[in-house]
Each structure stands twice: as C-alpha cells, then as structure tokens.
Amino acid sequence: MIFGSGVEQTVEDMLRHREQRMMFQKKLLNDNEEVTLISYTMNIPGPIKNNSAIFEMFNYGFGLIEQALKNEKVEIIYQKIIQLPSGNDGFFLVKELPIPVKELTMKLEEQSEFGRLLDIDILSIEQEELIQVSRSHFKENPRKCLLCSADAKNCARSRKHSVEELQIKINEIYERMT
Known about the structure:
Number of helices: 5
Largest sheet: 5 strands, antiparallel
Shape: globular
Keywords: Lyase, Nucleotidyltransferase, Transferase
Organism: Vagococcus hydrophili
Catalytic activity: apo-[citrate lyase ACP] + 2'-(5''-triphospho-alpha-D-ribosyl)-3'-dephospho-CoA = holo-[citrate lyase ACP] + diphosphate
EC number: 2.7.7.61
GO molecular function, one term: lyase activity
Strand order of the largest sheet: 2-3-1-4-5
Helix content: 40-55%
C-alpha cells in the first residue's frame, strides 16, 4: 500500500503549504509578463501527502502536462517541481493565453482514471490580482468522483467515501501504472 510510509501532515501543515504555494504563484506571475501559470498538485486523501510512490505518480503527471504542452507547441519558459512532506507542487510558466491552456489541461484531467488524481490550476494576473480560470468558464460539468459518478466536490464535502476507500483506489491506479 503506497500510503504505508511518509510523514503524517496536520491541517495546519496543509494550510501553510497552500499559503506558500499561493505566494510562490503570485511571485512567478508578478516577475513575468504576459504569461500563464500552470500550477499542478495531486488529489491525495489522508494525512500522508508524500512518499516515494506518491512522488513517482506526481512526476508521471508532470510529464503528461509537459508532453501535452510540447505536442501543442506551447512555449514553456519556466518549470519547477517543489517536493515537501505536505505534498508536491509543479509549476509551468507558458507563453499562451489561459483559456486554451485550461482546455488542454481539462482533457488531461478527464482522459483517464489517473487524470482524476491531477489537480491543475491555470492562473494569470490582472492588475496585481491572481485570476484562476476554472471549469465553470466553459460551462463544463464538475469533475467526477474517483469512486462514483457524482460531483467530486460534493463527495469530498459530505465525506461520502472514507479516506481508506480512496487510498485503496489510488493504490490500484498506482499498481496499474508501475
């Protein structure tokens, strides 16, 4: 089981990680003009957010994003991976408008079961405000739950599935990819 090792994270650890990620996103966008930022994490349930297997899956997803950008001839001007016990973050700065980048990354998130683990945000900056392009801009249906066909956010909010059920499913996905 891939969740058998790793340092357990608290809610405070996760909130601190999120705040650090947001500050880094803003810095990247403020330091670079006319770019779109792709910020990538994974949907990992439970207190273990990183270990060698989770990082392996993260790297696989990072490679999928990179290859999709190259296939579409999107110019990547910067890319970085940050690995922390509280999770992994991947960043791409690209010379492309946010809307086509979001369309491309939505396809990645929907193309396979593994894609449902990907959490890819598309950001830009306008008048020093961070702007996120969401699925709702496209009138797309919400992302589906990893375990059922319901809206993933509703399942998460209502805790419809246990952390253990979700981890078992992620472990199955990992075993199929290795």
